[in-house]
Amino acid sequence: MKALSNYKNKPLSEVYHLQLSKPNQGDNRADVERVVAALQEKIQVPVTMPLELMYELPSALRRNNWQLFVTINYNWFPANRPEHHLQAQVVSFSAPQSQPVPYGVAVDLGSTTVSGQLWDLNSHQLVAEAACLNEQVSIGEDILSRIFYADTPEKQKHLQQLAAASVNRVITDLVQACKIKATDITAAVISGNTSMTHFLLGLPPQNICRSPYTPVLNNPCFQTAEKLGLSMHPSAAVYLLPNVGSYVGGDVLAGILASGMHRKQEISLLVDIGTNGEMILGNKEWLLAAAGAAGPALEGGVVTCGMRAKPGAVYSVQIDRNSRQVSYRTIDNLPAKGICGSGIIEAVSEALMSGIINRRGQFREGRTSLVIVPKEKSATKMPIQLTANDIAKLLRTKAAANAILATLLDQAGYDLTDLNHFYVAGAFGNYLNVEAAITIGLYPDVPRQRIEILGNSSLKGAGLLLNDISKALELAEILKKIAYVEMNDSADFMKHFTAGLFFPHTDLNLFPTVRAKLLSTTRDK
Amino acid sequence: MKALSNYKNKPLSEVYHLQLSKPNQGDNRADVERVVAALQEKIQVPVTMPLELMYELPSALRRNNWQLFVTINYNWFPANRPEHHLQAQVVSFSAPQSQPVPYGVAVDLGSTTVSGQLWDLNSHQLVAEAACLNEQVSIGEDILSRIFYADTPEKQKHLQQLAAASVNRVITDLVQACKIKATDITAAVISGNTSMTHFLLGLPPQNICRSPYTPVLNNPCFQTAEKLGLSMHPSAAVYLLPNVGSYVGGDVLAGILASGMHRKQEISLLVDIGTNGEMILGNKEWLLAAAGAAGPALEGGVVTCGMRAKPGAVYSVQIDRNSRQVSYRTIDNLPAKGICGSGIIEAVSEALMSGIINRRGQFREGRTSLVIVPKEKSATKMPIQLTANDIAKLLRTKAAANAILATLLDQAGYDLTDLNHFYVAGAFGNYLNVEAAITIGLYPDVPRQRIEILGNSSLKGAGLLLNDISKALELAEILKKIAYVEMNDSADFMKHFTAGLFFPHTDLNLFPTVRAKLLSTTRDK
């Protein structure tokens, strides 16, 4: 039997053709053992077959002259020590006339958006992508309100069903797109933050947000699709990424996996500013994780005209340096309904560079707001604008991000110039103007060739593991190395936070390209 | 993690008291991982917890100040290579106020009778025994008729339900006897022949009795009680003994385990003459198994007045050597309804020793039958008797047993004098007069101190494994060593069979004590 490290590029589900020897007096092994032995010879790991499949096996073997296609899944346990625990399970078998394709789905179970990919695991081809709103939004926009809601087993079950229903909507779109049946899907990898994973498992989430922030479960590993109520083959292996506490969930671990930062000698920084901002600093020897509520200022509900990045949201803003004329773009070119995170960042960056606000975030020349869409053009019949208060909130969010990064660098004994790779993660990154984020100081001012936009790194990481089970070993290494740094405990955090209350920062030496731009702008005037 | 060989005398289910450290900022591992780590430290094997148990865990831990009793089951796979595959699963947890007892049942799933034992697995005490008729008898008395019946998935399911219902009746009796709940039972070991095991699993049994006699499954290992419809804790681990083909089932393997013949240097013979007669010859290096329809002549349906060993059956017969007066005993002292196997054997032995029949089994002095119970005393109002034809059938059954043993000895290169241990297995043995069985030549004439009456060795073997999981290693060794000898293929079988058509045998040198008795009887006349 081989160890997991020998299974590079093996997908989580495979189809094998078996041509078995017919039983005779010298070899009358049972049907199940005959199939299992033939599979074990091919894949070199212990194979099990669920009882349900055994009912049909004898007639299927004899009807098809001892030839079958067999679909298997791999599994292992526990998540942090998978090397010598690889096993396989038979999921289904079918007649030798037509070879089935092993399909798998990768899912990023976001608190707002659930995104999925359908993979042909035989050819390692991505065949479809889909996304939908997480149906749990009906219970509450933010995770905290869902946790407060889920205070009885019935409500936990309700949230479980909403999470499963959201994943199932994505699956429905995926299978319709390429005309397969949901039951053709025999494997899945799902990444989500710790709360979302708990919701999907139906686990009580209360202690996630109560000191000392203890999840029910760190390593869900495998569950069957049937148990979770997911529309796939009932015995499909569903792998849920582990978490390392309440604030570093499977989505972050999948992101690290997708970035490859855990295999590099050089220092990398991974930043995922979504609802809850996470930062990972490290290399192949160590990984430091931190989290903070970086997101709220960049989403609906906190900023006066804020909204999620959906059709009608202003996602890009330009301000003419001379005329201060504002132009903007909306998602799907619809009449503007509000402004999403990337729009806010670009608007403030432009306001700074065109001198509408000063480096403290205060309006100059007696202004009280920056109108981006006048009420005549807005879909809401109200001006879409940023107030002084909105900008102050963004400044604090940015200062928190600065402080987290500075604290992590302090702990590790490095500084900004040591960051060889800067990975921008999160669906947020899709519309984001990275230059603007650097201009306001939200992202560090590193040489641009060091920046890599990962997009939805949680989904990418899930897809990697789905297509290559040996990634489970990398994940185990990540679990072993990662340490969570609690910001509230850090004496330096407040000092760094205060220093961050300037655009881009009190210390302009940390933002050399922004300083240069600011100087040239001033010079131009 | 330790290998199975380190777990001598560990029962299949155990209860542990856990006093966990309370989570704090320095140790905020998840609740499940905290419990699992504490258990793993105690038992040194990987531990899993089913999702269902996780729902209640957080509140149970906090309500009980981080103390719990946890009931676990061990499991391993596959049956023939268990050494490094030992795992444990949490079955339930309970409050620290009262320590639960881990209960387990051992079951012999016989085609006629289902027998069970309830064990306190903590103290290794047998706390109750019970038995009931296999409800499948309603489908057919013999296994072959049930196999013919089970020709559709619905009928296979019906037989599965009848088998489970029979086991459940035994369990109901067991739990009522000692006032526990069925859900207190968290582990079970079930032994049965290959067909019965297939019936309990709901598997199609047809190929068991069709050349080349291929079961669906050799190694069932573990199923949950819920999956099999058994009245225990739904997650109870139910271990079904493996088979090594259609004719050497789990009941035989359990019998070998109970006898200990597989650990002795000396040669042993294990004989189980039930519905299907089985013989195992061997020692710690090799094991030869053979089977033949030895039983029918000894049961209802074949012998004119035959019946199963149940109340009202004549189980013992004495004939006065001079007066030839017949006396008899019935089970439960009820009016005689028929004669069971042990009664037939003793009646023929007595008829032989009192000169009523000759060594060919023929009646002397113009008799045509041996009346054991005259019609006036019989519950059926018919005489209970053995006819010449009945005795001829018994003679053939006996000759088959002689031939099987002789063929096995030939193959192994030993003779009768090499048999250091002779194990008499089967519920049949409960009433059996071993001397009578030797007198007619059914059992070999070995020195009496070498004979050991095992009783229900299938049930005993199941009980052993239930109380000592390291027996799984012995079972794996047995599986590795045992070879089935097909009698139909043996040229010598017919020769030995013909030589056996005398009571006790053509060659009286094989039966020295019987020869002496016959000589003294003749001398007395």
Task: Give a verbal description of the structure.
The structure is a homodimer of 525-residue chains. Chain A is an alpha/beta fold. Chain A folds into four domains: 4-94, Ubiquitin-like (UB roll), CATH 3.10.20; 103-246, Nucleotidyltransferase, domain 5 (2-Layer Sandwich), CATH 3.30.420.480; 251-296 and 394-524, no CATH class; 308-382, no CATH class. Helices cover 32% and strands 23% of the residues of chain A. Chain A has 15 helices and 21 strands. In chain A, the strands form five sheets. A six-stranded mixed β-sheet of chain A has the order 7-6-5-8-10-9, with helices on both faces. A six-stranded mixed β-sheet of chain A has the order 20-19-11-12-13-21, with helices on both faces. In chain A, α5 (153-177) packs across α6 and α8 packs across α12 (457-467). Chain A is elongated, with a radius of gyration of 26 Å. The N and C termini of chain A lie far apart (73 Å). The mean pLDDT of chain A is 93. The A-B interface holds A 23-25, 28-33, 46, 48, 51, 54-55, 57-59, 77-78, 85, 153, 156, 201-204, 206-207, 211-219, 223, 227, 243, 245-246, 486, 489 and B 23-25, 28-33, 46, 48, 51, 54-55, 57-59, 77-78, 85, 153, 156, 201-204, 206-207, 211-219, 223, 227, 243, 245-246, 486, 489.
